[in-house]
Write a structure and sequence with these properties.
- The chain is built from twelve helices and two strands; from the N terminus they run H-H-H-H-H-H-E-E-H-H-H-H-H-H.
- By secondary structure, the chain is mainly alpha-helical.
- It has one domain (2-308).
- It has a two-stranded antiparallel ribbon with strand order 1-2.
- Helix 2 (31-58) packs antiparallel against helix 3, helix 2 (31-58) packs antiparallel against helix 9 and helix 4 (105-136) runs antiparallel to helix 8.
- The protein is globular.
- It starts with a helix and ends with a helix.
- It is a multi-pass membrane protein.
- InterPro entries: Integral_membrane_TerC, Integral_membrane_TerC_rswitch.
Length: 317
């Protein structure tokens, strides 16, 4: 429990420094600043692999799956890359939500900050239940595997689907439960006018992003559980990945059109992890193979997006 408590405290220290010190004065996050912060978060996450090695080598942390220190590090990095890659798809949706509710760029960091807090709580609960299910019912891994394959197929077929947050069930239910104003007053989530407290577009965007993250977690958490059932590795790799999601959003949201093939990378990753789950009791796939497939899929998607001109894509449609 000491290790878990220390890690959670470290996360909240990071968040407090982020909002209270480095982003105390609200401003529009430029690409250069976002790039620097993305590099910082990735460095922090990868450096944490040294902590993982030390924890498993010293025996300070419980090791229910019997991992070696080197094996724990490989599974941590693989899990981190899976969550980081699947977060790219989340960036696309966040951009659509901010655009639909006309959230000014100067307040977007604040919305994402509070969204991260909620994501930490919800993902912790999902990880605890997911690990418990796999530990108690080994057959559940097949359910997760089929679900990931279905998600990959659905993602492959959803190129032409458009997501409109204002037509979503979440937005309709919020309107029924609470008054909503179209006015934005600073960074406030609620405003009071004529004695009535109403939610601003910032709050609505926050709720929609929060619930959307839960839906994305339904994909990413089973994917990481395919790599390892060790709860600390699953939790730490997941949380450190989503901590960098905000800076990643500001870095690549302005270049969405350039990453035309990244969805195909995600399809390959989800399909591979799903198949790995289905054959987990029959074929043992080395961790370096999983890490290689995930890394190569991401690199291939990014390189293809940058090298193949847009005109060629348009002509082929």
């Amino acid at each position: 429990m000491l290790v878990w408590g220390s890690f959670i405290c470290l996360i909240f220290i990071f968040l407090a420094l982020d909002l209270g010190v480095f982003h105390k004065n609200e401003h529009v996050i430029k690409s250069k600043e976002a790039g620097i912060w993305t590099a910082i978060w990735v460095t922090v996450a990868l450096s944490f692999s040294a902590v993982i090695y030390w924890l498993f080598a010293s025996g300070i942390i419980d090791n229910p799956t019997g991992l070696t220190p080197k094996g724990a590090v490989l599974k941590y990095i693989t899990g981190y890359l899976i969550e980081l890659s699947l977060s790219v798809d989340n960036v696309f949706v966040i951009a659509v939500i901010f655009s639909a509710f006309k959230i000014p760029p100067i307040y977007q960091h604040r919305v994402l900050f509070w969204g991260i807090l909620g994501a930490i709580v919800f993902r912790a609960l999902m990880i605890v239940f997911g690990v418990a299910l796999i530990t108690k019912f080994e057959w559940i891994i097949y359910v997760f595997g089929v679900f990931l394959l279905y998600t990959a197929f659905k993602m492959l077929r959803s190129d032409d689907d458009t997501f409109d947050p204002k037509k979503s069930m979440v937005f309709r239910n919020i309107k029924k439960l609470y008054p909503i104003t179209t006015a934005i007053k600073g960074h406030d989530f609620f405003v009071k006018r004529m004695g009535v407290t109403a939610a601003t577009p910032l709050f609505v965007a926050l709720v929609v992003i929060e619930l959307t993250d839960i839906l994305f977690a339904l994909d990413s958490i089973p994917a990481i559980l395919a790599i390892t059932a060790d709860p600390f590795i699953v939790f730490s790799s997941n949380i450190l990945a989503i901590l960098g999601l905000r800076s990643m959003y500001f870095l690549i949201s302005r270049m969405l059109e350039k990453f035309r093939y990244i969805n195909y990378s995600l399809v390959v990753i989800l399909a591979f992890v799903g198949l790995k789950m289905l054959f987990s009791h029959h074929i043992e796939i080395p961790e370096w193979v999983s890490l290689s497939v995930i890394s190569m899929s991401l690199v291939a998607g990014i390189v293809s997006s940058l090298l193949i001109p847009q005109s060629e894509v348009s002509e082929g449609v």
